[in-house]
Amino acid sequence: MVDIAKAEAKSEPPGFDKRAPWNEVLARAIDDSGFWSRELEQPALLVAANVTSLNDELGEDTAMGRHGSSAMARHGAQPKSDLRLPKPPRLGPQQQTRTHNVHDGAYVTNRSGYKLCEGFNSNQCPAHVNGWCTINRNEMHQCSKCLSQSHNASKCGQTPAPSKGVQKGQGKGGRGKGKKNYQY
Protein backbone atom coordinates (compact mmCIF):
# COMPACT_ATOMS: atom_id res chain seq x y z
CA MET A 1 0.00 0.00 0.00
CA VAL A 2 1.27 3.47 -0.85
CA ASP A 3 2.18 5.66 2.05
CA ILE A 4 -0.13 8.67 1.80
CA ALA A 5 2.26 10.95 3.68
CA LYS A 6 5.06 10.20 1.19
CA ALA A 7 2.75 10.80 -1.76
CA GLU A 8 1.62 14.15 -0.35
CA ALA A 9 5.21 15.22 0.28
CA LYS A 10 6.13 14.79 -3.38
CA SER A 11 5.78 17.80 -5.61
CA GLU A 12 2.60 17.95 -7.68
CA PRO A 13 2.50 18.74 -11.38
CA PRO A 14 1.80 22.35 -12.33
CA GLY A 15 -1.90 23.15 -12.39
CA PHE A 16 -2.80 20.22 -10.09
CA ASP A 17 -5.46 20.97 -7.49
CA LYS A 18 -5.96 18.54 -4.59
CA ARG A 19 -9.60 19.61 -4.28
CA ALA A 20 -10.33 18.67 -7.92
CA PRO A 21 -7.85 15.93 -8.94
CA TRP A 22 -10.01 14.68 -11.82
CA ASN A 23 -9.61 17.97 -13.68
CA GLU A 24 -5.94 17.13 -14.26
CA VAL A 25 -6.74 13.53 -15.24
CA LEU A 26 -9.31 14.66 -17.80
CA ALA A 27 -7.04 17.38 -19.18
CA ARG A 28 -4.26 14.83 -19.75
CA ALA A 29 -6.66 12.37 -21.37
CA ILE A 30 -7.95 15.01 -23.78
CA ASP A 31 -4.40 16.05 -24.72
CA ASP A 32 -3.29 12.46 -25.49
CA SER A 33 -3.42 12.67 -29.30
CA GLY A 34 -1.97 9.17 -29.75
CA PHE A 35 -4.92 7.64 -27.90
CA TRP A 36 -7.50 9.55 -29.95
CA SER A 37 -5.75 8.69 -33.21
CA ARG A 38 -5.50 4.98 -32.34
CA GLU A 39 -8.96 4.56 -30.77
CA LEU A 40 -11.14 6.98 -32.76
CA GLU A 41 -9.67 8.55 -35.89
CA GLN A 42 -8.11 5.48 -37.54
CA PRO A 43 -11.10 3.14 -36.94
CA ALA A 44 -13.53 5.84 -38.12
CA LEU A 45 -11.56 6.34 -41.34
CA LEU A 46 -11.47 2.57 -41.98
CA VAL A 47 -15.25 2.31 -41.54
CA ALA A 48 -15.91 5.42 -43.66
CA ALA A 49 -13.70 4.04 -46.46
CA ASN A 50 -15.54 0.67 -46.31
CA VAL A 51 -12.28 -1.13 -45.54
CA THR A 52 -13.79 -2.69 -42.41
CA SER A 53 -17.26 -2.92 -40.91
CA LEU A 54 -18.58 -1.01 -37.93
CA ASN A 55 -19.22 -4.30 -36.09
CA ASP A 56 -15.58 -5.36 -36.58
CA GLU A 57 -14.33 -2.10 -35.10
CA LEU A 58 -16.78 -1.94 -32.20
CA GLY A 59 -16.76 -5.62 -31.24
CA GLU A 60 -18.61 -6.06 -27.96
CA ASP A 61 -19.01 -2.30 -27.57
CA THR A 62 -22.14 -2.49 -29.75
CA ALA A 63 -24.20 -3.95 -26.90
CA MET A 64 -25.98 -0.80 -25.83
CA GLY A 65 -29.47 -0.31 -24.56
CA ARG A 66 -31.71 1.14 -21.93
CA HIS A 67 -31.46 0.06 -18.32
CA GLY A 68 -32.87 -3.44 -17.94
CA SER A 69 -32.96 -4.26 -21.65
CA SER A 70 -31.57 -7.48 -23.09
CA ALA A 71 -28.71 -5.55 -24.72
CA MET A 72 -27.30 -4.73 -21.29
CA ALA A 73 -27.34 -8.42 -20.29
CA ARG A 74 -25.44 -9.60 -23.40
CA HIS A 75 -21.98 -8.91 -21.97
CA GLY A 76 -19.49 -11.18 -23.72
CA ALA A 77 -21.91 -12.23 -26.45
CA GLN A 78 -21.11 -12.05 -30.14
CA PRO A 79 -22.01 -8.69 -31.73
CA LYS A 80 -25.22 -8.60 -33.73
CA SER A 81 -24.62 -8.90 -37.46
CA ASP A 82 -27.34 -6.46 -38.43
CA LEU A 83 -27.48 -2.94 -37.12
CA ARG A 84 -30.71 -1.01 -37.14
CA LEU A 85 -30.67 1.22 -40.16
CA PRO A 86 -31.74 4.83 -39.75
CA LYS A 87 -34.77 5.93 -41.70
CA PRO A 88 -33.71 7.62 -44.94
CA PRO A 89 -35.09 11.05 -45.81
CA ARG A 90 -38.45 11.15 -47.53
CA LEU A 91 -38.55 11.72 -51.27
CA GLY A 92 -40.78 14.76 -51.24
CA PRO A 93 -42.34 17.24 -48.86
CA GLN A 94 -44.89 15.91 -46.38
CA GLN A 95 -48.35 16.26 -47.86
CA GLN A 96 -51.59 16.82 -45.97
CA THR A 97 -53.61 14.38 -48.11
CA ARG A 98 -52.61 10.89 -49.05
CA THR A 99 -51.74 10.51 -52.69
CA HIS A 100 -51.07 7.24 -54.41
CA ASN A 101 -48.07 7.24 -56.70
CA VAL A 102 -49.21 4.53 -59.13
CA HIS A 103 -47.63 3.44 -62.42
CA ASP A 104 -49.07 0.62 -64.57
CA GLY A 105 -51.43 -0.50 -61.78
CA ALA A 106 -48.73 -0.80 -59.10
CA TYR A 107 -47.71 1.47 -56.25
CA VAL A 108 -44.34 3.12 -56.81
CA THR A 109 -44.15 4.68 -53.32
CA ASN A 110 -45.99 3.98 -50.11
CA ARG A 111 -48.35 6.49 -48.49
CA SER A 112 -45.48 8.06 -46.56
CA GLY A 113 -43.58 8.80 -49.77
CA TYR A 114 -40.91 6.06 -49.51
CA LYS A 115 -40.03 4.25 -52.76
CA LEU A 116 -40.96 0.56 -52.93
CA CYS A 117 -38.24 -1.99 -53.74
CA GLU A 118 -38.87 -3.41 -57.23
CA GLY A 119 -36.61 -6.38 -56.51
CA PHE A 120 -38.73 -7.40 -53.51
CA ASN A 121 -41.90 -7.39 -55.61
CA SER A 122 -40.26 -9.54 -58.31
CA ASN A 123 -38.79 -12.11 -55.82
CA GLN A 124 -35.20 -10.91 -56.42
CA CYS A 125 -34.50 -9.05 -53.15
CA PRO A 126 -35.41 -11.14 -50.08
CA ALA A 127 -33.40 -9.42 -47.33
CA HIS A 128 -34.77 -6.58 -45.24
CA VAL A 129 -34.41 -5.04 -41.77
CA ASN A 130 -37.69 -3.86 -40.26
CA GLY A 131 -39.19 -3.48 -43.74
CA TRP A 132 -36.23 -1.52 -45.16
CA CYS A 133 -34.32 -2.95 -48.12
CA THR A 134 -30.75 -3.92 -47.19
CA ILE A 135 -29.47 -3.38 -50.74
CA ASN A 136 -30.95 0.09 -51.22
CA ARG A 137 -31.69 1.64 -47.83
CA ASN A 138 -33.96 4.27 -49.39
CA GLU A 139 -36.55 1.66 -50.41
CA MET A 140 -39.20 -0.29 -48.52
CA HIS A 141 -40.16 -3.95 -48.83
CA GLN A 142 -43.91 -3.65 -49.32
CA CYS A 143 -46.33 -5.24 -51.78
CA SER A 144 -46.83 -2.94 -54.78
CA LYS A 145 -50.51 -3.96 -55.00
CA CYS A 146 -51.72 -3.59 -51.39
CA LEU A 147 -48.70 -2.11 -49.49
CA SER A 148 -48.53 -5.08 -47.10
CA GLN A 149 -45.13 -6.01 -45.66
CA SER A 150 -46.07 -9.68 -45.21
CA HIS A 151 -45.84 -10.59 -48.92
CA ASN A 152 -44.74 -9.23 -52.29
CA ALA A 153 -46.78 -8.45 -55.42
CA SER A 154 -46.29 -11.92 -56.94
CA LYS A 155 -48.02 -13.50 -53.91
CA CYS A 156 -50.77 -10.88 -53.55
CA GLY A 157 -54.35 -11.83 -54.32
CA GLN A 158 -55.64 -8.26 -54.59
CA THR A 159 -56.53 -6.40 -57.73
CA PRO A 160 -54.06 -3.80 -59.02
CA ALA A 161 -53.46 -0.63 -57.03
CA PRO A 162 -55.98 2.22 -57.28
CA SER A 163 -55.64 4.86 -59.95
CA LYS A 164 -53.29 7.76 -59.42
CA GLY A 165 -54.72 10.66 -57.45
CA VAL A 166 -56.04 11.58 -54.05
CA GLN A 167 -57.97 8.80 -52.34
CA LYS A 168 -60.23 9.36 -49.38
CA GLY A 169 -59.71 6.87 -46.57
CA GLN A 170 -62.52 4.88 -44.97
CA GLY A 171 -61.84 6.15 -41.45
CA LYS A 172 -62.51 4.33 -38.19
CA GLY A 173 -66.16 5.32 -37.83
CA GLY A 174 -67.73 7.48 -35.18
CA ARG A 175 -66.85 7.34 -31.53
CA GLY A 176 -69.19 7.06 -28.60
CA LYS A 177 -72.20 5.83 -30.56
CA GLY A 178 -72.09 2.25 -29.31
CA LYS A 179 -71.69 -0.91 -31.32
CA LYS A 180 -74.00 -1.36 -34.25
CA ASN A 181 -76.03 -4.56 -34.56
CA TYR A 182 -75.19 -5.66 -31.03
CA GLN A 183 -77.26 -8.69 -29.94
CA TYR A 184 -78.12 -9.28 -26.27
UniProtKB/TrEMBL annotation:
UniProt-annotated stretches for the region Disordered: 59-104, 154-184
Residue stretches of biased makeup (Basic residues): 174-184
Protein's UniProt name: Uncharacterized protein
Species whose genome carries this gene: Polarella glacialis (Dinoflagellate)
